[in-house]
Design brief:
With 231 residues, the chain is an alpha+beta fold. The chain folds into 2 domains: 104 residues, no CATH class; 86 residues, no CATH class. It is built from 7 helices and 10 strands. Strands 3-6-7-8 form a 4-stranded antiparallel beta sheet, with no helix packed on it. A 4-stranded mixed beta sheet has the order 4-5-9-10, with no helix packed on it. Strands 1-2 form a two-stranded parallel ribbon. The chain is elongated, with a radius of gyration of 27 Å.
């Protein structure tokens, strides 16, 4: 996919007022210039989208893949034996031969891969947590806004207050879990914290774990409640 985008060098997109910020970042990384097609004229971008339909219908539909490596292996075989040796219906040229002629004029791919980001807007709960993918992640007590911009990467959850990064978490697997960074909470709200407890804490659903206390603690609670009943 990266090679195809770089080879095209020019992407036509249906836009009315402005270009999506994520597309601008992608274009800047790979060095191509987005160009808007005419409004209400989807046919003006048909040539750009047609290859994706061809790949979907000729390769993906009806295919069975064990995992990502198996999918990539089958795709490589399909490209080498079906897609690239064929004569293109529009240019009437063999795809491999046409690409060999144009390859020298292509730009080199960037040395670093593009870190795709999913941009979300999330409102923090009263407990100072934002929900991403069915899990909760903490934001600092010192933040002033209730709505945050969240950038989801493969290996990191970044939470921004305006343009300022206020929290960063490793993504949680599954759903219904919480990741709480002790540094996000004021000392008073955490009570007594043990030294060296600055690592983020992962909490499961409410009711899964209970705080362990000594029997003396519960005996003292019972005596206090009994004294209140007597009064």
């Amino acid at each position: 996919m990266r090679s195809y985008i770089a080879a095209v060098g020019l992407v036509t997109v249906s836009l009315r007022k402005s270009i999506n910020r994520a597309l601008v970042d992608l274009a800047r990384h790979y060095g191509f210039q987005p160009r808007a097609c005419r409004p209400y004229r989807p046919k003006t971008k048909g040539r750009v989208e047609r290859p994706f339909r061809y790949i979907r219908e000729d390769f993906f539909l009806g295919g069975v893949f064990r995992n990502l490596d198996d999918l990539n292996g089958q795709l490589r075989h399909w490209l080498d034996t079906v897609a690239n040796p064929r004569v293109h219906a529009m240019t009437h040229r063999v795809v491999n031969e046409a690409f060999a002629e144009e390859k020298a004029a292509l730009q080199a791919l960037p040395s670093a891969p593009y870190r795709a980001v999913l941009h979300l807007e999330r409102r923090a709960s009263h407990e100072g947590m934002v929900s991403v993918g069915g899990n909760l992640y903490s934001v600092p007590d010192t933040t002033r806004r209730r709505v945050f911009d969240v950038h989801v990467l493969a290996d990191e959850i970044r939470i921004f207050e305006g343009s300022v990064l206020v929290a960063s978490h490793a993504p949680l697997e599954g759903r219904g879990q919480k990741r709480l960074d002790p540094a996000h909470r004021k000392l008073a709200s955490f009570g007594r914290r043990r030294p060296g407890s600055a690592e983020p804490v992962t909490l499961t659903r409410a009711g899964d774990h209970a705080v362990r206390r000594s029997l003396d603690f519960y005996a003292a609670v019972g005596r206090r409640l009994a004294a209140q009943e007597i009064v």
